[in-house]
Design brief:
Helix content is about 85%, strand content about 0%. With about 90 residues, it is an all-alpha fold. α2 runs parallel beside α4. The N and C termini lie far apart (about 35 Å).
Length: about 90
């Protein structure tokens, strides 16, 4: 029972940050919903999510937002891992 509770708690924390990021992208940057979701999948470097988003949207317009976010997220992940390795 404790394992199930911890899994649900972890999923709720993750979902909360995803929802907050999409709302922030919609309000501050005035991005359409599909573009804000594409930037979120780019920040998580998740190509499978991009494929699902393209299929759902029925267009490749979301790829440019993903492509703009992906390299920044990848460089940040490498830098953070380098810093954590030195701690």
């Amino acid at each position: 029972m404790t394992d199930l509770f911890l899994k649900v708690l972890n999923l709720s924390f993750s979902a909360t940050w995803v929802v907050l990021a999409v709302v922030a992208a919609r309000l501050w940057f005035r991005l359409p919903l599909l573009n804000s979701l594409a930037s979120m999948t780019g920040s998580m470097t998740c190509s499978a999510s991009l494929a699902a988003l393209i299929q759902t949207a029925g267009t490749n317009d979301v790829v440019s937002t993903y492509a703009a976010t992906y390299p920044i997220a990848l460089v940040n992940m490498v830098l953070v891992m380098q810093l954590l390795a030195k701690l």
